[in-house]
Amino acid sequence: MQNKGHMAKMSRFSSCTADSPRSSSGYCTAITAGYGFFRILAPFLRNNAQLMKRRLFVVFALILSTGCILSPDIEQEPEELLYAPEIMLDHLNPPDDSIIKLEEACASRKVTFQVGQIRDFNVRDTLYIRWIINWDPTENRLDELGWEGYLINPTTTQIRPGASKILDYDNTQFDSSLYAINTLKFIVADRPLRSGGNGLEFPPDSDGAGQLASYQWTLEVAESGYCNVD
To answer: Mind listing the pLDDT tens digit for each residue in 25-35?
Structure first.
């Protein structure tokens, strides 16, 4: 059987005869030398492969026993940049102006104020709204004023519908006498607001990240001016 195997291997080189056209180019010499070198090297390669397998098995067993299997890095989404809400000044009603005149003899004794649009680049934010009449942080306590507040829910677009308020002349915080000066402040924030003393405060766990925007109308009660029609 061994002789037959040897003869089978040798038959692969049957083309390397004196009659072969390749014999003159040294082809047979190179093939024969390469075959001899491979026969010498083959036992070493087989033994070395077995040794490498054993070494890899030992290393893997040590890793399992110590629990030192490193998990692949998982790419985390970058933190979203926080932007303050923005009041769109071209969508104010009454429009952005130095002083808004309100009609003293207004039959309905009401005037509607509106912030038509608010832009927030963080579309998943809930926005917190406050309307405050005649707030002076140096003189009166915010928590004693009749402010109004509500929410604007998250959306899928940066531009959100704003908010409106009907200013009632009979509001105890409003001075409806002729030529009286009042203020109406609109505040929008992306964090819950607290009424602490004279100011607006963010909750302690907000890490200082909350941001707000505000707009204030200055109002004068005059002989003619804005008035809601019943």
So the answer is: 555 554 555 55
Q: What angle do CA 114, 195, 124 make, to 5 degrees?
A: 60
Closest CA to 173 of 183, 164, 165: 183
User: Alpha-carbon distance 181 to 123, whole Å?
Assistant: 37
Q: Do strands 100-103 and 212-222 pair parallel, antiparallel, or not at all (unpaired)?
A: parallel
CA distances 185 to 28, 81, 158, 159, 213, Å, are: 99, 27, 23, 21, 11
pTM: 0.62
Number of residues that make up the chain: 230
How many C-beta atoms surround the C-beta of residue 129 within 10 A? 20
Instruction: Give pLDDT tens digits for 53-81.
Output: 666 665 565 565 665 555 556 667 677 78
DSSP assignment of 178-223: TT-EEEEEEEEESS--EEETTEEE--GGGTT---EEEEEEEEEEES
Give percent of the chain with pLDDT exceeding 70.
Answer: 56
